Amino acid sequence: MEKQVLRFKVNGDEYEVFIHPKTLLVEVIRDHLGLTGTKRGCETVSCGACTVNINGASVKSCSVLAVQCEGLEVTTVEGLEKDGKLSPIQRSFLDHGSFQCGFCTPGMLMSATAFISEAKNPTKDQIKESIEGNICRCTGYNSIVRAIEAVTAGKYKEE
Amino acid sequence: MSHAKYNVINTHVHNIDGVAKVTGRATYTFDVKLPGMLYGKILRSPHAHAKIKNIDTSAAMALPGVKIVVTGKDTLGVKQGIWRRYEELCDEQVLPLEKVRYIGEPVAAVAAITEEIAEAALDLIEVDYEVLPAVYEPLEAIKKEAPTIHEGVERNVNVTRHIEWGDVDEAFEEADYIREDWFKCSGQAHMCMETRAAVSSFTPDGKLTCWASTQSAYYTQGLLAGVLGLREGDVRVLAPYVGGGFGGKFELDAAMFTSAVMSMKLFKPVKVCFTREEDFIASKRRTPMFYYVRTGIKKDGTFCARESRMFSNGGAYTGMGATALYLSGFFHSFPYKWRGYRYDGYRVYTNTLPSTSMRGFGAPQAMFCSEQQIDWICADLGLDPFEVRRKNGHTEGYEVPGQAFIQSCGLEQCINEIEKWVKSKGKLPANRGIGISSCGFMSGGIFNWFDSPYSFSSAVVTINVDGTVELHVGCQDIGQGSNTTMAIIAAETLGVKVEDIRVHSGDTAHCPADLGAWGSRQTLMAGNAVKMACEDAKKQLLEFAYAEMGINIVYDLDIKDRWAHIVARPERGLPYVDLVKKALRAKDGQRIMGRGYYTPHRKGMISPAYSYMMQAVDAEIDPETGKIKIHEVMTAHDCGQPINQLGLIGQLEGAASMALGYAYLEDMPMEDGKLMNPNLVDYKVIKAPEMPEAGIIEIDTFEPEGPYGAKEAGEGLTNPTAAALGNAIYNAMGIQMKELPITPERVLKALREKKEQEAQK
Ligand code: FES
Ligand code: FES
Prior knowledge:
The complex is a heterodimer.
Chain A: E1 4-10, E2 13-19, H1 25-32, E3 51-54, E4 57-60, E5 73-75, H2 88-96, H3 105-118, H4 124-130, H5 142-152
Chain B: H1 18-22, E1 38-44, E2 50-56, H2 58-62, E3 66-71, E4 99-100, E5 106-112, H3 115-122, E6 126-131, H4 138-141, E7 157-165, H5 168-173, E8 177-185, E9 197-203, E10 207-212, H6 217-228, E11 235-238, H7 254-266, E12 270-273, H8 276-282, E13 285-286, E14 289-297, E15 303-315, H9 321-331, E16 340-349, E17 355-356, H10 363-381, H11 385-392, E18 399-400, E19 404-405, H12 411-424, E20 432-442, E21 457-463, E22 469-473, H13 482-494, E23 501-504, H14 522-549, E24 557-560, E25 563-566, E26 569-575, H15 576-586, E27 592-598, E28 610-621, E29 628-638, H16 645-665, E30 670-671, E31 674-675, E32 693-698, H17 721-733, H18 744-760
Parallel strand pairs in B: 1-12, 10-11, 13-17, 15-16, 22-23, 29-32
Antiparallel strand pairs in B: 1-5, 2-4, 2-6, 3-5, 7-16, 8-14, 9-10, 9-12, 14-15, 18-19, 20-28, 21-22, 21-27, 24-25, 25-26, 28-29, 30-31
Helix pairs in contact in B: 6-7, 9-10, 10-17, 13-14, 14-15, 16-17
Bound molecules: FE2/S2 (inorganic) cluster (FES) (2 copies).
One FE2/S2 (inorganic) cluster sits between chains A (99-105, 136-139) and B (193, 244, 479).
């Protein structure tokens, strides 16, 4: 198969990459753009470490071909902070100790970010469901749930 | 500790690596990319037991883009192991020369300009095997007629361990009631989110730098030097961020070894990362154990004697399994006083994935058996399980004969608190029960099987002119938060703020040697080293302060909150930063530098200190499907003085999730030595919706051996959960679960058997 050009936005910047059509989005993000905040933890679309947002929706970037993102806007963990100011969910993660090794954290933050932008007064169960696709081996999730809860309850404002 | 006033300890301190971790800045070995870096892949054995007759690498070598293919013949063939002191336990050639002993064992490695080419080259390597008869279960492998896995090892018994105290037979004679049970405890995958990964770079000056996903940069350095024929000092290991360890990452692994071997031949950086499947089939696991437990008790509930035999599935190599064998037997006695205790453990080689240490280090298995049997005995005799545990539990000042000396011990308070909690729940609906389990755990091992010539932990602290502090430690942060804990201890000791401290760790070139993150050792051992180093530096500052302030030498001086002052008259003093500046000038510009170390002495056989806990699990069982729903987990926990508040909660919640997974979800079923679920679709871990609330009641104790009274937290809490769930199911349904994990099938089978028995009656 011929390589082809992909034009899309990542964290607000326009990128043009020349890729094999079978290249996964996660590979473009990590290997072509060098944004290694996004992780990989499996080959079976099961762990969520690679989660990014595409046009605001959370997507496992190992489950989509990069070329499918033509013209779309991708946000990775590196795109959450603005001018050195952390986003509400990032600050809430710090306050609630919602990470340990941190390897699941970028994906977890992206799932949470997409959820928070949509959710209205979510229940605890809804919060848990929102990160169902993200495996964390360290924290036992409860501190992550508390962090998301605090943001959805309006305790953190955009700075 | 409520009776000590601390400024930093046990306050709400953010993880000092937090900003890096929540912004994607934290760079793991998995993320390392060096100029000119090549990608390595490993060819693995499809056979459980086979002779390697020949390996033909020519076709793979001829593939464009392939830079090298190596087999055991290209290595020094060193048989290595982490029990360095004991030659017979160094039994693993990471690329074996003669034969393979489990499915997934590395046989060759390729480095190429892309991962895809390296992968494609694997298919071109031809290995000529002579398949040998294999054996997979320890109770089979120990038989006379079983195939020999390691030449010269009779009956495949890798290590044995005998623990005994008191007159066991006499103590059994005093018992009014004796009960015997057999248990089967499963393996468990560490399943670190970052798979095993290493990047090695060997340069023409003869020096090797290796980024490794490791729990101990120092062990990795020593082990690599050993297998490569290099001086330790010529090997630099870097582990800035590590994506989890849980006991599975302090041995030499194939990513470290093959990347280093290939880099040494090519003088180029080589990166090897395991896929998730490789991580499952070939990175070791929690040790599966068969336990026979015989316990004698008096009518009034006094424990007399216990005698246990344990056969563990060691898999193909020793690894850390020898330690797990000992600790399992020791903690199987915990946390109770036995007049007589005898344990015989046999670690048996099989043709399966090697087993090793994993969070809890053999204790979760031991507690699953012990704590359930105690409840069954209580039921048999009509005794109260809380009362029996209180009556026989460890207390302050108790000596486990010949093994351990207990200083702080909050077990009784733990039992009292959980009893209160359980009683407050009142009567539960049908098919729902609460089970309890107590245990204790070590705060670092005393053993030195690695034969380290260095102290177990060390720290160096340097104070900059502006009062900021460089803290160099060898302890390894693998996510448990040790960098933060050390920063807290340093800030408290020096009297400064956490943001004044920069922690340097995970680099053997700059940090003093430390045994690393295993056996719950860092808070106590590295914590003591940090405290000592900071006291050393502070003393130098205060000596100068006496002169500067011109005060009576009988006054005590201290620094708190960046203010150096007279303890009795805190308003008299000077700012810490001014003191540092003046002291530097007075010392002819020499930097204020403090050194600290910790090596345990006269602390028994196991550990300098022990944590205690009791846990309750509230679970509901669907009698139709056998499915388990966990409603809540509650733990009363004595870890001495908590240091890192947020870190502690996270560790305890995390332990609960991993232990629940072990109790009812995670399993490693094998067929003819082949793991049947080597992926995250079929291997089930706890996910957010299954995770219950896991509350903590902190029990206030002070451990004299620990820094500021601290001891173990976070590993020990993987120990009680499987037993507590088993007891919950027993209380709810009246069935005894003797096999892990407690799957719906096993629950249904036990329910059927119970029905049949009742029908017979
Ligand atoms: S890498 Fe595991 S889901 Fe994408
Ligand atoms: S923080 Fe380690 S996997 Fe989530």
